[in-house]
Amino acid sequence: MRRWWLNWKLWGGFLALVGATAVYFSLKTGTPRLALFWVFGLAFGFIVQRSHFCFVSAISNFFLFKDGRLIRGILGGLFIATIGFSIIMYRQVPDPASGLPATAYVAPFGWHLVMAGAIFGLGMMLAGGCIMGTLYRIGEGALASLVALLGIIIGMGLLQHNWPWWWNNYISHLPNVWLPAHIGRIAAVALTLAATGLLYWLVASKNSPKAAHDSTDSNGETGSLKSSIHKLGQGIFVNGWPLAAGGVILGIGNILLYQTAERPWGLTGEVMRWAQNALGAVHLPAPPIATVPGT
């Protein structure tokens, strides 16, 4: 029987926890807001890796294998986040007709979203995952994902040098469509929840019987306290989490982050900063990027 004190994974996890705690306290003294983002970032990363949460996998698994578990997890997270975000935005702007919430990310609506979505979707399929999936796969040791991340950073760098032209000529004059300002807050929330629920039902009705249930590692046995603790640790740190649970937890965490830091969870903005740093390192600084409120 292997002794626990000889388990290098256990010690590696302990050292990582100690290092993360040290970083938190070092940030808290000078930049408490950054320390808050550090905690939420670690939590989101852990949840995403444990549930293997990836948008491109959700789409590909559904169309290739009729496995809709991950899409249902995403829709569950959106359902929860819609309710929480609506309450937060109501506190910021009681009358939606008076303007957009100061911290809301409401991008200009137009044809560029369709084009960008198609190009980004193609890139995700070729890379085998979205940005989120690429990052947690790197943490799992997938070296090919490093190539994908390098391509993402290069693409972000090219975008930064071309963005002023796109923004000034095609995007800045497009309308910011915020449903509460057009049809009222209650109707907008009800429409969003109804659409999310309908998509959930459609995905569930098309789900393959082989993928109808998340896999679990429970055999119904009960044992000693030590055995129960061991099973709990296995369920949290070793076995994959139920996909629906990952989506719901991420939705709740996003609400807490938005309420606490007035910023929703995002990835592309941070990767954009990585690209900025890379461009600066090779003496190709990008021009300032025009953006929308909340980014």
Mean pLDDT comes to 83
Oligomer: single chain
Task: Note the gap between the termini.
Answer: 53 Å
Low-confidence stretches: 215-222
- Rounded radius of gyration (Å): 21 Å
Element string (H = helix, E = strand): HHHHHHHHHHHH
* Strand residue percentage: under 5%
Q: How can the largest sheet be summarized?
A: none
For the secondary structure, the number of strands is 0
Helix content: 55-70%
Shape verdict? globular
Number of helices: 12
Walk me through the structure.
This protein is mostly helical and 295 residues long. The protein has one domain (17-209, 244-281). The protein has 12 helices and no strands. It has helices at 8-30, 32-51, 55-65, 69-92, 111-127, 131-139, 143-171, 179-183, 185-205, 225-237, 243-261, 268-281. It is globular and about 65 Å long. The termini are far apart. The model is unreliable at 215-222 (pLDDT under 50).
